Every structure is written in C-alpha cells, then in structure tokens.
Amino acid sequence: MITQTTRIPVTIVTGFLGSGKTTLLNHLLNGAHGKRIAIIENEFGEVSIDDALLVESNQTIFKMSNGCLCCTINGDLVRTLTELIARRSEFDYVIIETTGVANPAPVVQTFMVNEDIAEAFALDAVVTTIDAKHIGEHIEHIECKEQVAFADILILNKLDLVTTDEAEAVVTKLRSLNGLAVIHRTERSNIALAAILDQHAFSSEAVGEDHDEHGHDHEGCGHDHNGETCDHDHGHQHDNHDHAHDHDHGHQHDNHDHAHDHDHGHLHSHHHDDDVQSVGCVLSGDIDKARFNTWFGQLIQNNGDRLYRCKGILSIASETNKTILQTVHRVVEVTSGSAWKEGERLSKIVFIGKDLKRDELLAGFKGCAIQA
After folding, report:
1. SS3 for 304?
2. H-type helices in the chain, by residue range?
3. Are 364 and 295 in contact (CB under 8 A)?
4. What predicted TM-score, i.e. pTM, was given to this entire model?
C-alpha cells in the first residue's frame, strides 16, 4: 500500500491554445533535472515530442531518453493513473497536460473524490501558462478564465512580444481573476523546475500560511512582491488527507470533520467588470461551527457551479488547531492544520468564481461569528 509519505506528487499544466504548454513540457522532457517524470497528455498530437527522445513505447506509455515517461489518455484519466501505479518504480513525479480549451476542474476533482487515486497521488499545484501577447483575445473565452481562476501558479509567457506597460496591464487583469496565484514572468516558457514543481500548494500547511500579499509576482524565480492588500494562500492538498466530499453526490470519508474552513471579514474584491473574480475576507475572533456549516453548505449547494475554488483558514470555537478548507465547485476538503498560537486566532477565506455576490458573502460569513 502507498502511504501518505510516499504518495506521488502531481502537477496539472493547463493554458489556452498557443500559450506555451508545448514549450514548457519539452523543457521538462529535455531537461537534466534528475527527476523521473511521467507526463500525461490529453491529446498526444497537441504536444510536439522529439522522436529522438523516445526509447521504448507501447500503446499508452512512452519511455524518454532522460528517464521520463510520456502517456496518452485513452478517454479515462483514472485508468491511465492506475496503469502508472503498476509502473511506480519507474517515476517519482506526474505532470498532467490538459487540452488548450479544457476546464481543469474535473482533473482536480479526480484527486479529491476518488479514494484510490487520492491514496496513491498527491495533487501538488495547478500551473497555467498565459500568452501575454494574445491574452486579451483569449480571456474572452470562459475556458481561459477558468484556467486562470484554478491556477496556483501563472506563467506569464511571451514577454518578449509585449511592452512593460502591456505586461503590467496583463498582471492587473490576472489579479482580478485570481488573487491567490503566484505569477512568474517568462519568455519561451523558460522557467526553473523548482518554481513549478514540489510547490505543495494543496497541503494544509500551505493553505494555513499567512501571507500579507494577495498574490506574488516573480520575474523568473526571483521574488518581486507587488504588495496588494488581501489574503494570499498558496495551496491545497493535504498531508492529512482523506477528507474530500462532494455536496452533490454525498461523498464522505471517515475521520472527516464537517467544519468547512473559510476566511471572511474585511472583504477584498479584485473585480474589474469581469464575471470571473476573486473575493477575499478576514474576520477576527472565533466562528460558530454549526452556523458556519449550515451557511457554507447552503452556499456550496446553491452556488457550486459558479464557485470555482475556495480556500480558507477557520478559527472554530473551542478547537485548538486551525481548520483548513478547500473546495473545487461542490467538492469540499477539510483538514486540521497546525495549532493556533496565542493572539493569532482569526478566520480568512478567498473565493474565486463567476458572478460572486460580494455583499452576500460578507453578510453570511459575519453571521457565523461568535460575538465577543
């Protein structure tokens, strides 16, 4: 049996057509990075793989000269992942490349609701490539907005094709859609692997980190914080896993605590007349668990289609540890984080979705607070 400490990390790479996914994946396949990576492609023909790199092949899995594996999905991601488990000794990391017009939500949900997959694989991060030159056209497509909204890491690519002012305008646009993601600026998708792999963005520790910036903007790999004022969380996937459930289908797991983590209080909405937006809130003091569960359960049930992602840290009354919450549409995952330190208790939450009602979110969350 694969244990929590040996679960295989998985990075999802998405991005609109022509944004640089192909170039990024070829960097991975050609790089002398020392990792044995299994790359899963939704459409093999969409990514140009150098035939000279192929060492062995069968119907779905190709062995590369640098030790990586290249796989194609024959209609079923779960089946492909199961086949990879049988070859566990041949790789230590998985990267899934989605098609250019794919919504990454179903891929993310696979690792949250399928118990066998969740036991074997640990979702590390969602990486979205952005074409800085053509994002203005691409962003009109809802698929592109969803790819930005679901990202933990945004690779702002093709900067050699735009001016500095144009690049800054793109960053502002991206921040309006997703205030949580780290932004890396690149040309030709040239980025250090350390900046996109092993990010632990779905870990309870990452979600529980307290960041002053709403998002990070990195040039290459150096830190260049823009200092926007809103809560910033880096992650998801939990080392103390097994807590995902789907409010539509009733998935529930043992040892699951239904206190859904969320941070609301001062509400920060980065919204520039876009239907997809990021809304964050901070609330001091403790949260009444029963009230929160009732409110949030109704919120997810009624608005799950429009609520792409939610991440938060809750201070639940009478509980000594942080409650960490993450959702993808109606799939909710709740875990126990680190212990609260004296004087630091507060609740924070960030919603990313379509047509979010800012005032209703704020009022609903405030109604869960225990008045001093």
Report:
1. coil
2. 21-30, 77-85, 105-113, 115-120, 135-138, 142-149, 164-177, 204-208, 289-303, 358-366
3. yes
4. 0.72
